[in-house]
Amino acid sequence: MFFSSCTDSSVDIASIKKLIQEGELVQAESQIQKAIEGDSANVDLNILYADLLLKKGEYRASYFYLCKAHEADSINIDVNLKISQFHLFLRQFDNAIQAANAVLKVDRSNAKAYFLKGMAYKDFGDTVKAFSNFRTAVEQDDKNYESYVQLGILASAKHDSTAVHYFDNALLLKPNEPEVLYNKALFYHQHGAVNKAMKIYLTVPEGSSFYGSARYNIASILYHQEDFKHALQFFDIASKYNSYKAFYMKGLIYERTGKVDSAMINYKQCLSINPEYKLAQERMTLIR
User: How far is it, in rounded angstroms, from Cα 132 to Cα 153?
Assistant: First the structure.
């Protein structure tokens, strides 16, 4: 989400921002439109209107007013950051980098601009330049949470143990963030430190989008340790998140423990979610 840093002008921008925060978008938009009619080159008003339109999902109109703000002040840091974010959202990576560079010409230490460049390079596929920009971002701002997360993810992909360091820095800033907890545990899991992985997987909070995957991974560890009783309990939790693989693994456990009917039920449930899953098809054929 784009962020606002408008300053007060002759128009009572603070009251308009309050209306937006309270969800009174119609009234806020009416006031902004009237104000812009009297001062169409007002950078703060155009930024504010762009933010409001973005909340409404009117992306083209939002970008139009960002461009108006840019025409009025082409070196405005807030405007260029927002434009960079907009191009990143549209996957227009060259334009996103160009807008971020415009910020850095004015403020060489702007961590947000380095982060946006890093995301553009990452999504484009240039992980070397992405890593370099994320690292510069945290050098400029040691509380840049998003950059620590991205550094951790990129280091993990290279099987680099510094991933844990970056995830730990992110957790210092947001101690219970599910994404970071899950990715740190996954790094340990993929590199054989299963006990460390399990302890962290267990801290991933219920209700997060990573909860089901964390429970599935705990179950997988227990399965490979041949602790089928507890593995089944965690696969059962994971299956509630429509994980077809969890149903398949439950089927395997039931099959290995001689409960063929229960195995068949779970294989069928797996295939109801993913009819093309060949492993479940093969197991059903074998036990029929």
Answer: 13
Q: Which domains does the chain have, with CATH numbers?
A: 1-73 (1.25.40.10), 74-163 (1.25.40.10), 176-239 (1.25.40.10), 242-288 (no CATH)
Residues 6+ apart with CB under 8 A from 221: 189, 194, 197, 198
Residue ranges in the chain whose pLDDT is less than 50: 1-9
Tens-digit pLDDT profile for residues 7-41: 444 567 888 888 888 888 888 888 888 888 888 88
Phi, psi of 142 (to 5 degrees): -75, 5
Question: Within 10 Å of residue 212's Cβ, how many Cβ atoms?
Answer: 19
Predicted local confidence at residue 1, as pLDDT: 40
Decide: 158 and 152 in contact? Cβ < 8 Å.
no
Count the Cβ atoms, other than its own, within 10 Å of residue 86.
21
How many whole angstroms separate alpha carbon 146 and alpha carbon 132? Answer: 14
pLDDT tens by residue, 14-23: 888 888 888 8
Residue 288 has what pLDDT? Answer: 79
